[in-house]
Amino acid sequence: MINGQIRDKEVRVIGEDGEQLGVMAARDAMKLAAEAELDLVKIAPKAQPPVCKIIDYGKYKYELARKEKEAKKKQKTVELKEVRLSPNIDTNDLNTKINNAKKFIGKGNKVKVTLRFRGREMAHVHQSRHILDDFAEQLADVATIEKPAKMEGRSMSMVLTEKR
Hints:
Layout: E1 10-14, E2 20-25, H1 26-35, E3 39-44, E4 51-55, H2 57-74, E5 80-85, H3 91-106, E6 110-116, H4 125-138, E7 143-152, E8 155-162
């Protein structure tokens, strides 16, 4: 809330250079702001009495937007990478997939390991579970299982995350 939008009878006022001007009537505070050719901005509406500051509102909004943008820049988004396997995968192929998963986890991403079944492979689902278990065991030094292996249609999948 700024200037005329402030409807409180009394407000605690902070000057443009940060000094406390004390508790006064909202009208007097608005007069002070008008004399300085600045805006009276309500900063802490929940306080008793509400806290208002005499500042340039446009500059204040710009600073807030800049701080928000800076905070957003420092955030890291975690992606979900997928590694697909088949029940009759060879050991060298499995090692390659494990190395890829290590790279993904090293970069801070989650890895979804999917074991896809086709045709008659669906008859031997229970025998293929050890592939996912071995995969997780190989990555035990860098990753933990977030979601254990679970059947979803024609595929079995689990999610691995970076070890903390």
